[in-house]
UniProtKB/TrEMBL annotation:
It catalyses: GTP + H2O = GDP + phosphate + H(+). It comes from the Bacteria. Gene3D superfamilies: 3.30.70.240, Elongation factor 4, C-terminal domain, Elongation Factor G (Translational Gtpase), domain 3, P-loop containing nucleotide triphosphate hydrolases, Translation factors. GO terms for cellular component: plasma membrane. It is a peripheral membrane protein. Keywords: Cell membrane, Elongation factor, GTP-binding, Hydrolase, Membrane, Nucleotide-binding, Protein biosynthesis. This is Elongation factor 4. SUPFAM superfamilies: EF-G C-terminal domain-like, P-loop containing nucleoside triphosphate hydrolases. GTP binds at residues 22-27, 139-142.
Length: 604
């Protein structure tokens, strides 16, 4: 019953949507906003929840966002629905579990033509473990290839979730949208939370806004939060005054109070995003003993790479750009690095390859920088002969081989879902990537494979290879499991006899011969011919395992463009010039950006 007493939370529903990329989460969220009358048609034209340009271009959701909607249900009552968006990509799974902590329920949206995918299974388990009510929804029912019965069977068998009364919907046509909202109100419990208790609020997300400073999205778990309150951020121990608070409906709307059970934003003149980390707990300065909401952990980067400005003059701008970018991205780690080959730059840590690509693109696009990136690497644990254990995120910083007692690499626990007809190819790929099979189950038309794989193999090209091995149908989810001793070594690349530190890679000894040779071949393709022969060698210590030669250039590139075809000649020169921008002079040889990433293109 919707009572006037403020302590009644029965009209509130906090929920998230779990969906694999492209299964229709954003479209569905837009429909909810429309049904609840939050936006005009023109505003609807933009997908409001994916707010960053880059996200929209790539069509993926990165930052969690929320929207508060008033829904007039069929029982005549008005409910407050707080939808908390979650990112769909495996790199950002930490943020998913944060978002789920703020909810009592989640919709599991599955494309009725595609079926269940590994990532949504993993997120669904997280939700179930956190005690959430999960409601399956079959989306894209308007498509002729929709197979609701098969997908229901998959949901029941793979996830173990009752799905026979899952709403059959189409976010595109509008079919079933109100049925979803009705089911949500009926099945997802309202939040619990004592309004009289001391304030305890969870930070679901924080981002840096140029005008407002840090804005945090919070879920009040107990007590109330008022404008003007002096708050305490538990992990930093810092105190701040709340300048503004309110909700997104979906526009930012100011209020004076957020109560237990509610979700909204706060601004408290916090200068950088690390001052209000995601997953942290807020309480009042007067009640510092309120416990933290459990499960808070600092995000740890999984993949590291060196980023260097092409022109040394840009170093200062590059540092400023990283400072600014990190205001908004707490998971971006960076520290100065210097390389003999590439000069001064930064060693950056990322959540995964997608995160790395996004950061790189933002630096180049928003800050107009030309950067050279070295091959990404995972973090290794090295036990030295003197017993000391060190973590190494940069192949060129490895201790000398004879000082290494044990080389340990990170192992992930991976789940792959793949249609039966492609399972053979996927197993072959996993074996090639040094995977160890832990489980294999057949369900409906899909096979669920569980493997332990070295993280280094996964972050390289595994995902792309998996997609091509399964015609795009396989899906993957993985999480760090442990460090394990492995027969690894460092492979150096020498250009005309000079060891190029930025080209060093760590790999398994079994792969060294073959990959070393392929790497030299690839380098030969990538390094432009010079006025002299260039020798490219791959070596372990002093032992050369492969070599090739980039033959000296004899002809002028434009020589063959004889006659009056000036435009073609100009074009060629222009292309050459653009190519040069992304080159680094190493000794007397120009090495292009692609060569630094060549290892990623070397299939074992
Ligand atoms: N035919 C059909 N297409 C749909 C439906 N729902 C979504 N789509 C389309 O599917 C594509 C992906 O939809 P999104 O809503 O962007 O998917 P998403 O899950 O939010 O993707 P991320 O933001 O990347 O996680 C878009 O081209 C939508 O237009 C539906 O019910 N029917």
């Amino acid at each position: 019953m919707l009572a006037s007493v403020s302590s009644d939370l029965s009209h509130i529903r906090n929920f998230s949507i779990i969906a694999h990329i492209d299964h229709g989460k954003s479209t569905l969220a837009d429909r909810f906003i429309q049904v609840c009358g939050g936006l005009t048609d023109r505003e609807m034209a933009e997908q409001v929840l994916d707010s960053m340009d880059l996200e929209r271009e790539r069509g993926i959701t990165i930052k969690a966002q929320s929207v508060t909607l008033d829904y007039k249900a069929r029982d005549g009552k008005v409910y407050q629905l707080n939808f908390i968006d979650t990112p769909g990509h495996v790199d950002f799974s930490y943020e998913v579990s944060r978002s789920l902590y703020a909810c009592e329920g989640a919709l599991l949206v599955v494309d009725a033509g595609q079926g269940v995918e590994a990532q949504s299974v993993a997120n669904c388990y997280t939700a179930i473990e956190q005690g959430l009510e999960v409601l399956p929804v079959l989306n894209k029912m308007d498509l002729p290839q929709a197979e609701p019965d098969r997908v229901i069977q998959e949901i029941e068998e793979i996830i173990g979730l009752e799905a026979h009364d899952a709403v059959r919907a189409s976010a595109k046509s509008g079919l079933g949208i109100e049925d979803i909202l009705e089911q949500l109100i009926e099945r997802i419990p309202p939040p619990e939370g004592d309004l009289e208790a001391d304030l305890q609020a969870l930070i679901i997300d924080s981002w840096f806004d140029n005008y407002l400073g840090v804005v945090s999205l919070v879920r009040v778990r107990q007590g109330t939060l008022n404008k003007g309150d002096k708050i305490l951020i538990k992990s930093t121990g810092r105190q701040h005054v709340v300048d503004r608070l309110g909700i997104f409906n979906p526009k930012m709307t100011d209020k004076t109070v957020l109560k237990a059970g509610e979700v909204g934003f706060i601004c408290a003149s916090i200068k950088e995003i690390r001052g209000a980390p995601v997953g942290d707990t807020i309480t009042l300065a007067t009640t510092p003993d309120v416990p933290m909401v459990p499960g808070f952990q600092k995000v740890k980067p999984q993949v590291y790479a060196g980023l260097f400005p092409v022109s040394a003059d840009d170093y200062g701008d590059f540092r400023d750009a990283l400072d600014k970018l990190s205001l908004n991205d707490a998971s971006l780690f960076y520290e100065p690095e210097s390389s003999d080959a590439l000069g001064f730059g930064f060693r950056c840590g990322f959540l995964g390859m997608l995160h790395m690509e996004i950061v790189q693109e933002r630096l180049e696009r928003e800050y107009d920088l030309d950067l050279i990136t070295t091959a990404p690497t995972v973090v290794y644990e090295i036990m030295k002969t003197d017993g000391e254990v060190v973590m190494v995120d940069n192949p060129s910083k490895l201790p000398a081989i004879n000082n290494i007692e044990e080389f340990r690499e990170p192992i992930v626990h991976a789940t792959i879902l793949v249609p039966q007809e492609h399972v053979g190819n996927v197993i072959t790929l996993c074996v090639e990537k040094r995977g160890v099979q832990k489980d294999m189950q057949f369900t409906g038309g899909q096979v669920s494979l569980v493997y332990e794989l070295p993280m280094a193999e996964i972050v390289m090209d595994f995902f792309d290879r998996l997609k091509s091995a399964s015609r795009g149908f396989a899906s993957l989810d993985f999480a760090f499991d442990r460090f394990e001793a492995s027969n690894l070594t460092r492979l150096d690349i020498l250009v005309n006899g000079d060891r190029v530190d930025a080209l060093a890679v760590i790999m398994h000894r079994d792969h060294v011969q073959r990959r070393g040779r392929l790497l030299c071949e690839k380098m030969k393709e990538l390094i432009p011919r010079q006025q002299f022969d260039v020798a490219v060698q791959a070596a372990i210590g002093n032992q050369v395992v492969a070599r090739t030669t980039v033959k000296a250039l004899r002809k002028n590139v434009t020589a063959k463009c004889y006659g009056g075809d000036v435009s073609r000649k100009k074009k060629l020169l222009q292309r050459q010039k653009e190519g040069k921008k992304r080159m680094k002079q190493v000794g007397s040889v120009s090495i292009p950006q692609d060569a630094f990433l060549a290892i990623l293109k070397v299939d074992s």
